[in-house]
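Repro case for the chain-ordering regression, as requested:
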Amino acid sequence: MKIRFYNARILSMNGNMDITPDSELWVFDDRISYIGKIKNDSDIIWDRQIDVKGNLLMPGFKDAHTHSGMTFLRSMADDLPLDRWLNEQIFPREAKLTGEDIKMCTMLAIMEYLSSGITAIFDMYLTPETIDEACIAGGMRCVQVGGMNNFSQSLKEQEEWYKKINAGNPLTSYMFGYHAEYTCSKELLMGLSDLAHKYSAPVFGHNSETASEVRGCIERYKMTPTQLADSLGLFDNGGGGYHCVFLSDEDIAIFRERGLSIVLNPGSNTKLASGIADIRRYLDEGIDLAIGTDGPASNNCLDMFREMFLVTGLSKLKEEDASVVDANDVLIMATKGGAKAMGLSDCDCLKEGKKADIIMIDLMSPNMQPLNNITKNIVYSGSKINVKMTMIDGVIRYEDREYNIGIEPEAVYSYVGDLADRLR
Amino acid sequence: MKIRFYNARILSMNGNMDITPDSELWVFDDRISYIGKIKNDSDIIWDRQIDVKGNLLMPGFKDAHTHSGMTFLRSMADDLPLDRWLNEQIFPREAKLTGEDIKMCTMLAIMEYLSSGITAIFDMYLTPETIDEACIAGGMRCVQVGGMNNFSQSLKEQEEWYKKINAGNPLTSYMFGYHAEYTCSKELLMGLSDLAHKYSAPVFGHNSETASEVRGCIERYKMTPTQLADSLGLFDNGGGGYHCVFLSDEDIAIFRERGLSIVLNPGSNTKLASGIADIRRYLDEGIDLAIGTDGPASNNCLDMFREMFLVTGLSKLKEEDASVVDANDVLIMATKGGAKAMGLSDCDCLKEGKKADIIMIDLMSPNMQPLNNITKNIVYSGSKINVKMTMIDGVIRYEDREYNIGIEPEAVYSYVGDLADRLR
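-- result from build under test --
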């Protein structure tokens, strides 16, 4: 397929945050083949030419931490602290899910990601094989990460999924991971470290999400979750942590020195009353930051615009300083930072040769006007309503509120609605 | 006009938060004439019959504090503390605005309100007569409030506007008000109190938005802003305050005993790093709460969904308790609480005889599925993308992303864009 976008504003994020007007961008199959000034080439037979009408093309957002399959739980069990929420509401219901259930719940999440301009997800959930099927069917770029704990996902299974998914469709991949220190024995984490060394692979897991999690780990091991993981060699080949609300000075040093990524989840940390991460300091220390929505049961929505506003807004509240964490830094976290964490070096910015993971932001909307500062408009005022198109791997999967995911939206709603009724 | 909605879920908010399925609602001219079970009446000649397809009808949101005319400043001057932001960025530019400029900037805001399901605004800005023209032209229900300070809007002008606007189109009205203690002399506030007594009228103003504002007032008067206003008799006929982030025990007692409304502005308080209001306590004390976006220069968007999430989310963070301020309480603030503050007793809920200020929420969207709990879905996961229709005073002003406001959107964007360029 050859698709030409013309009359575009382009925020390439290739080395700077400049926006070039009157530009065009060509997609040949899954990659960007040209980006620059207007260029007519009458020899090319286009499958489609799209007049962008002065709207904005930019790299798609990367949702760098989520549990897509939890959509069935949205608004089913709110307003509880994290430990009770997990043990009383989540785990018992999850035990009843089939692989097909999780596939369809993931499909519902994919629709929401597309509507929020998200072109890649870093997903941790129960049945990697059916999650992989959903992402390939729906066209969502997905890096799955092991959610191993004492009750599910053995080391053997992780190794099998690692080999199988990474050898399969290039749209999807698999990383080693663990649910969290508090749900994994030390032996299990040591086994995971062996696997990571065997494949020279990075490792991710939930880390320091709540103050009580950190206290518990210190009681058990006289180390923080970060120190424990590092002491076991889990981070010898990189990786990082989800949430990271409560990091010590030593933890921050480990993240910095090992080049680990912190994936921020401000919506979930807000709704579950976990706390506010010290984002300004992480930025000052030069740590790679990414942004995730967390799962739809804890957030409760999969909306990168909400997360971006919260990343800067909560930092301003925490520091009592309206000038901290500016909009451009937030956009970098939501795109390039996510790509870095997820190992998607081909999807981080718009550039010739890069993957065509592109979104179109509708600037002709009241909340995007006037165009005093487009990147600030996106971070401070943007909404799902502004996503006009979401392209992944060169395929338009969402356009003007219509989905191209190989299944009718109503069929997805119906399946997940029935499932929720059954498990409520 | 006679409009029939059928196949609706209805959240009437008339005495409870129940949602009735398979319902219908009739609008005759500007009022609701029937609400209840399916009812065929072949004698009625309908102007339009709308199949709601199981989506939700509910009362429109009331944006109980805003400065609509500031849209030209969106993203022009961010990331500054409140005092520098006002004195260096806002006031000098505002001095150059004409009445027509403010009318068109207000029209841009009206479009955004409609897209967010907002059916009434409590607006404070510089040129009440042209703001009134914009709201009548665009069909937005508007209660204006005086923004008097030492430099603009005299008592004489307020009295003239009070008489003129309240005698004009019933879609719009006018209340006495003051910008804030720190921009008004004591003499001016005393004069305003005389006016409020003359007309037995409530008074609103910015109140205790920042810690430094409260400190300054105590230095000047040995009283908080609330105590000062009350001591001058400003609240003898009711009214209330915008923001109210830093209230003392005595202040809270004044609000409770006088039946004053607190209008919360969490988006603005977050972006300007002002702080988090003690919403849980205000609720516990039984104070009437409403929600406003504040102006688009400080927020930077006019989105009731963002505000609703922040009202509960920031309360959870402040209290370190995920169970505080539940979704239904937030919806009541955003609708009935706003109507109470604004004196719109005919617009608070859906009921026969009430004004037809109604919105339709699209439940067939991925972020609204499954329907485990619709009110939680709206507060925790809702977005402008879910607003399918906004009706004010019986007229559909927004439907499927099209506006019915008597002017083309592009003309509004063009005017405000040129204005912003001129003032930048």
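Ordering looks correct now. The first helix of chain A runs from residue 82 to 94.
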